[in-house]
Amino acid sequence: MQIIKSPVAVEENIKKSRFIGLLYPCSSEAEVQVYLTDLRAEHASANHIVFAYRIKTDKGTVCRFYDAGEPSGTAGKPVFKYIEGHDLINILCVVVRYFGGIKLGVGGLTRAYGKSAKLAIQAAEVVEYIELTTLLFILDYNQLPSFEYTLHKHYGKIISKDFTGQVKFLVQLPESQTDDFLQLYPGGVYQ
């Protein structure tokens, strides 16, 4: 699986219609809804705001697509096929269409929406998705330097610190590094 590092926007005119392809990294459906609400306000005069997304959750992958009034299967599905075909996860792909007066037909719509998604993905910086584990550690102060050094070597990061009595660290590290790290610091509790 892969993710995009940052939002992307591309634009193309096809038979006088303006197609704007947008990609957003998203980690939840709530985040998707925030982007869609903002885009509907920003592009209030657009004829169609088509979208598709794939979000990895604790319960599996959530996938949705929406044709936004275009003929069924001609807009959202082609967009979804591109993000699925590139094995992208935690992503929202939106194609905004301003109608230019020339009808594209079913095949033309499918190609236009798919092409907008394809161009946006080609413009994105795509990186490998790394599953993260969140752990809580309670340590003595004298363990801090060694713990932070070892965490860094295992590609982990500190999410929060609490310095009351003992030090409480909430950390994230790649799932592939978790077992090795827990052998060095066995007191970690999964969160």
Describe it for me?
The chain is built from five helices and eleven strands. It has 191 residues and is of the alpha+beta class. It has two domains: 2-128, Impact, N-terminal domain (Ribosomal Protein S5, domain 2), CATH 3.30.230; 132-190, Alpha-Beta Plaits, CATH 3.30.70. The strands form three sheets. The chain has a five-stranded antiparallel sheet, with helices on both faces. Strands 9-10-8-11 form a four-stranded antiparallel sheet. α2 runs parallel beside α3 (105-123). It is elongated and about 70 Å long. The mean pLDDT is 91.
The SS-based structural class is alpha+beta
Beta fraction: 35-45%
Integer average pLDDT? 91
CATH homology group of the largest domain: Impact, N-terminal domain
Question: Which CATH architecture of the largest domain is right?
Answer: 2-Layer Sandwich
Instruction: Fill in the CATH topology of the largest domain.
Output: Ribosomal Protein S5, domain 2
Note the gap between the termini: 23 Å
Run of helices and strands: EEEHEEHEHEEHEEHE
Strand order of the largest sheet: 2-3-6-4-5
Number of helical stretches of at least 4 residues: 5
Number of domains: 2
In a few lines, what is going on in this structure?
It is built from 5 helices and 11 strands. It is α+β, with helices and mostly antiparallel strands and 191 residues long.
Structure characteristics:
elongated; Ribosomal Protein S5, domain 2; 39% strand; 191 residues; alpha+beta; Alpha-Beta Plaits; 2 domains; five-stranded antiparallel beta sheet; 5 helices
